[in-house]
Design goal:
By secondary structure, the chain is an alpha+beta fold. The chain folds into two domains: 28-150, Nuclear Transport Factor 2, Chain: A, CATH 3.10.450; 159-213, no CATH class. The chain has helices spanning 4-26, 29-44, 49-52, 74-87, 188-194; strands spanning 56-63, 92-103, 106-119, 122-137, 140-150, 159-160, 169-174, 184-185, 198-199, 202-203, 208-213. The strands form four sheets. It has a five-stranded mixed beta sheet with strand order 1-5-4-3-2. Strand 4 and strand 5 form a beta hairpin. The chain starts with a helix and ends with a strand. Mean pLDDT is 74; it is low at 4-25 and 158-214.
Length: 214
């Protein structure tokens, strides 16, 4: 028969074990999908197409960042990664914000990531946005649909109007090439990127057609 001291000691030990297991027990499907997404990123960094395929379901569809066509079978998926690893040597990915939603045995992870690679001996980067759709097979979350596209650049014809309290994208067309003087470039960088001949009153007097923030 155990003494009271032994019983207390045993109880404390069991309590510590249960506390140590609590974070693992608290992990839910969202965390599992996040882990599956990170596994995709790690596999991408191994430069091996055959490491990527097991992360996709048998009927998976991929519309990749570099692909002009959708890839809807295993051979096409593999070919995509063969090409990606060839044209983007040293390919790796870093994830930004992720929005994960779970619907039973299906889940969607939407967010952005930045690819990094080496070209002509220099490091390069390619920001992109993505959506992974997952299905749960046994205990594994597999990608059934993957869309990825390069992050669009900000339009060059973007301006800010300090006389307006709100930002609204409005199409502006002018045949005279004159732009009201209170339309100023969003930043000095924007001014130089938009047109070297930019002035507060127009683009060197040339007619323009574009988009302005007003």
């Amino acid at each position: 028969m155990q003494s009271p001291v032994q019983l207390v000691s045993t109880g404390v030990g069991l309590g510590l074990i249960l506390l140590s297991l609590a974070p693992a027990a608290a992990a839910g499907p969202k965390e599992d999908v996040a882990v599956a997404t990170l596994a995709w990123g790690r596999a991408l960094g191994e430069d091996d197409p055959d490491k990527m395929l097991p992360l996709y379901s048998e009927d998976a569809v991929l519309w990749g960042t570099l692909s002009p066509t959708v890839r809807a079978d295993r051979a096409a998926l593999r070919d995509y990664f063969v090409t990606a690893f060839k044209v983007l040597p040293g390919l790796k990915v870093a994830f930004g914000d992720q929005l994960i939603r779970v619907y039973g045995d299906a889940a969607v992870n939407t967010g952005y990531y930045t690819f990094s690679y080496v070209k002509d001996g220099e490091p390069k980067s390619l920001p992109a946005r993505y959506s992974f759709t997952y299905v749960k097979s046994a205990e594994q979350w597999l990608i059934v649909d993957h869309h990825s596209s390069a992050m669009p650049s900000i339009p060059r014809e973007v301006f800010y109007s300090p006389r307006r309290g709100r930002h609204r994208l409005m199409r502006a067309e002018t045949g005279s090439g004159r732009i009201p003087t209170y339309w100023v470039a969003l930043s000095a960088n924007f001014a130089s990127a938009a047109a070297p001949a930019f002035t507060a009153s127009g683009f060197g007097g040339n007619p323009c057609r574009g988009y302005m923030m007003v």
